[in-house]
Amino acid sequence: MRASVVVIGSGMAGAHLAYTLALKGVDVLVLEAGPRRDRASNVRTFYDNPVKGPQSPYPSVASAPHPEDGKYDDFYVQGGADKFIGAYLRLYGGTSWHWTGFADRLRPADFRMKSDYGVAEDWPIDYQSLVGFYEEAEKRWGVAGDPAFDWGAPRGETPYQMPPIPHSYMDHQVIKALDKLGLHAGRFSHARNSEVFDSRPACCGNNTCVPICPIGAKYDASVHAEKAEAAGARFITDSLVTFIELAADGNVSRVKVRRPDGETFWVEGDVFALCCHAIENPRLLLNSKQDGAQNGVANSSGAVGRYLLTQANQDVWAMMPEPVYPYRGPQQTGGLLELRDGEFRSEYAAAGTSFMNSGWSGNSDATGLARKLIAKGMTGAELARQVNHQVARHLRLNSSAEVLPDWNNRIELADVADSSGVPKPKVTFRMDDYTRNGLAKAMEVNRQIFSAMAASDVESNDPYLSNAIIGGTARMGTDPKTSVVDTDLVAHDHRNLYILGSSAHVTAPVNAPSLTIAALAIRAAGRMINNLGK
């Protein structure tokens, strides 16, 4: 097979890249390791699966495995002080199937951490250079937002595409406590329809956004994968790329692909774009050692797999004196404005606190409580009454803090292979004190909120790594000795290889990375089109 542009991965980066190129008439072939599954099949799998975690609607396949709920140690070889539980999918449309749907730009300060706060690193691009691409990504997604809350990323005169998703009843009860404390709340911006948009329905409050929106009100990248196909891009699923081959001139010449039945074939191209998220991108690059690339493709700097990013979370939960009625609307509709940015970031991490509309433990809240009550001998109508009575009073506050980029936090190839025959990812990660101190500040505030609400049975867990945020491992930079790609996301070592997605991100601040992934993919497509024209 051959194409002008070969895209590896059909998630947020790959879908937007393919769509932008196809609109310009570029010959695009997208190779997706996982299967193509429709929404109805995914919803049915979720309903039938007794496990209700983020991966539960999406079965891992032996030919292209991904992490499974409760089995992260089976997928990752853990080598660090902190357990890594990054969750991602290999599937048509990618990991965006089970994202929260937050539609946030990064803040200007997020690109200038070193300059503004003396920590982490500056990005080699700034906020202003992405504004136009942010606007294009928002138009494609459709964003429901409150113009009063830009979450630190100035929008100018650019309106949101839809009215905001309203605060839940539970949010309003939290806000009453915030008023007593002099704190403030805002409504999140969502890639989730508040009215019909792009032929997709408005959100009706199923409260299963993670792991799946059953009606398609929440945007996911399968939307633009389908649009790319309609515009002429070719998609081949169940096609795992296992090796990147270099030509004598140092450019990529072709990639090796394996089908579930073991058949292999090669795909040639003029330009190649690696869009496999922040674990699979370095796995493939490191697995492609050859003459001229003894440390793996695009790895003359040794930075491939390095500077692994995530966030760290901590929860506080309690029993409210009166019902607050979680499980109404999306899982997160409002959050605390304080602690997300400021001069304090020179000393401790920014933390974003969300008021969780999903009880104490998300989709497992009622089932977990029911098991405890059944173990005490409770059954029938009394069991149902007690579940309703208690869950209605469950409130949880979740705080997510940024983690500093660290060379020693990394992905390597393990000595043992997974079911597809590719070496498993070995992860070494250590949470820094900067992050722990940021979470400690957030926990102080969260306990004050519960106190103001006269909560009882207040409990918390220890800080833990996020399973929703994965970044770094092929970072962007201007120095080929310390980075993997340049500001156009072109590999320093191979000028026809683009590496897209959050693996190129320099930091992982509290604003979600997904909109930046889409914006950078659209930006890269423009540069790619110009280069193909030349």
UniProtKB/TrEMBL annotation:
Keywords: FAD, Flavoprotein, Oxidoreductase
Cofactor(s) listed: FAD
SUPFAM superfamilies: FAD/NAD(P)-binding domain
GO MF terms, alphabetically ordered: oxidoreductase activity, acting on CH-OH group of donors
Glucose-methanol-choline oxidoreductase C-terminal domain sequence ranges: 407-521
Region feature (Disordered): 46-65
Domain FAD dependent oxidoreductase: residue ranges: 5-37
Listed InterPro entries: FAD-dep_OxRdtase, FAD/NAD-bd_sf, GMC_OxRtase_C, P2Ox-like
Family note: Belongs to the GMC oxidoreductase family.
Protein name, entry field: Choline dehydrogenase-like flavoprotein
